[in-house]
Amino acid sequence: MNEAERSEQWVTDQLDRLEEVYGSAPVHQLGWTVPPTRYERAADADGIERAVAGVHVTNDADEVLLIRDGHDEWACPRGPVEPGESLEAGAKRNVREATGIDCSIDAVERITIVGIGDETDRERPQVYCLVVRFVGSSGPDERVECGESPVRWRSSRPTDRLDAGVLAI
């Protein structure tokens, strides 16, 4: 089995596990073509290293936890999942490292499958990565701590439309 087939099998296994644990969730798929060096980096990644996970965290006041990300936009905390971590553990760690807040995970909000292709050799098979955004909550006494990115709680009203977006890989 080559790297492309392994990545596809890993994504399929993760999707099956997430559905078994949380039920169905919206799944989106997109493709990127990248320079050969970026393609090689994705192809050489081992399983869980091909994942980004975050959590849409709310508190008892129905506020949403947001960070200012690398694109200077307010977004839910997220980041890469480390080798040996589950998607859930990686998502909770990313929230804690970015904000100082511990959270629980209740459901899957959105899944994006990203097929990465080599822009200079279209014959090379796509390598697959997974981006997962969970839904979770924090305890009533959680206070934000600014780490490297500004952090804030934002009022979440039904009329607010926070863009689910694609979590950057």
UniProtKB/TrEMBL annotation:
<dbReference type="InterPro" id="IPR000086">
    <property type="entry name" value="NUDIX_hydrolase_dom"/>
</dbReference>
<dbReference type="InterPro" id="IPR015797">
    <property type="entry name" value="NUDIX_hydrolase-like_dom_sf"/>
</dbReference>
<protein>
    <recommendedName>
        <fullName>Nudix hydrolase domain-containing protein</fullName>
    </recommendedName>
</protein>
<feature type="domain" description="Nudix hydrolase">
    <location>
        <begin position="48"/>
        <end position="169"/>
    </location>
</feature>
<dbReference type="Pfam" id="PF00293">
    <property type="entry name" value="NUDIX"/>
</dbReference>
